[in-house]
Amino acid sequence: MPNFDAFNEPETVQVEIVTLSGVRTVEATDGMTVKEFKEANGLAGTKIIDEDSNLLRDNDVISDGMQLYISTPKKNG
User: Fold this and answer.
1) At residue 19, does pLDDT exceed 70?
2) How many domains, in total, are found in the chain?
3) Domain-embedded: residue 76
4) How sure is the predictor about 8, in pLDDT bands with cuts at 50, 70 and 90?
5) Cβ neighbours of residue 69 closer than 8 Å, sequence gap 6 or more
């Protein structure tokens, strides 16, 4: 008998985070919002831009194959 529960499990996707300090790959759940993604990866206070230079809002959804660019706030001092 097929495992129908497997259809209900969220699919994980690989997301590349590109910053000035380098590139790191993290896993996200397909359908995760940008806000959830920021909270899960300690990216609060950052701006996220996609490969087409679109600024992503908190309610935008992460999908497979995305490349995200992180803009951290400038620190004075």
Assistant:
1) yes
2) 1
3) no
4) low
5) 18, 19, 48, 49, 50, 51
| Two tokens, residue 38 | 């920021």
| Cα-based distances in Å from 59 to 21, 32, 35, 46, 75 | 26, 9, 7, 15, 26
| Residue 33 in domain | yes
Residue 59 inside a domain? The answer is yes
We report the CATH number of the domain holding residue 18 as 3.10.20.30
Residues 6+ apart with CB under 8 A from 23: 16, 17
In a domain, 50, yes or no: yes
pTM of the model: 0.73
